[in-house]
Amino acid sequence: MEDFPVASRLKTLIEALGLSDSQFADKCEISRSTLSLILSGKNKKISDVMLSQIHSAFPEVSILWILFGEGDKFSKEENQSNINQNIAENSIFQDNSSQLDEQLNLVSLNQLENIIKDIVNKSFNHTISTLENLVLKTSEPSSLRKVSKITVYYGDSTFETFVPE
């Protein structure tokens, strides 16, 4: 891990926050396997997306410190006890937050269902409209196709053309 100082700093940060690796990954919405690969040093790079997710979950954490080890761990002047208190408060209400997450997911699913229904209805209505227009065009007398001539080719390389009267 010393070959990869970002992994070392992430591990230090996770310990300072009083979280397990999986809790940290869940809070940051990072896959546990991705975090594990970085912490073990198998994955040598940390993506911009992952940094953004860490910053979203813990805005008090200094991105410069994570990347380069510059400055303090916590960019805002919050001390460790406030951070640990926030984490403890969040974990006390973890059951309620999971219920809230379920409700938000249901709302999201309902919204997604409505969006899909709208798309299907619009597509269906467009298809019906197109078919109706096609039927109208083919039923008009002016659009009926008329045979103007028929050419028959014979095996002896001759042909005859027939024109209707």
What features would you describe in this structure?
With 165 residues, this protein is mainly alpha-helical. Helix content is 64%, strand content 5%. The protein has helices at residues 5-17, 21-28, 32-40, 48-57, 63-68, 80-92, 94-139; strands spanning 150-153, 159-162. A two-stranded antiparallel ribbon has the order 1-2. It starts with a helix and ends with a strand. Residues 77-81 have low confidence and may be disordered.
* Ends distance: 93 Å
Major sheet size, sense and barrel closure: 2 strands, antiparallel
Approximately how much helix is present in the residues? 55-70%
Give the number of DSSP strands: 2
Q: Name the poorly predicted regions.
A: 77-81
Radius of gyration: 34 Å
What's the helix count? 7
How much β-strand is present in the residues?
under 5%
- Overall average residue pLDDT: 76
Biggest sheet strand order reads 1-2
Give the SSE string. Answer: HHHHHHHEE
Structural class based on helices, strands and sheet pairing: mainly alpha
Shape category: elongated
Short description:
The protein has about 160 residues and is mainly alpha-helical. It has seven helices and two strands; from the N terminus they run αααααααββ. Strands 1-2 form a two-stranded antiparallel sheet.
Which helices and strands, and how do they pair?
Layout: H1 5-17, H2 21-28, H3 32-40, H4 48-57, H5 63-68, H6 80-92, H7 94-139, E1 150-153, E2 159-162
Antiparallel strand pairs: 1-2
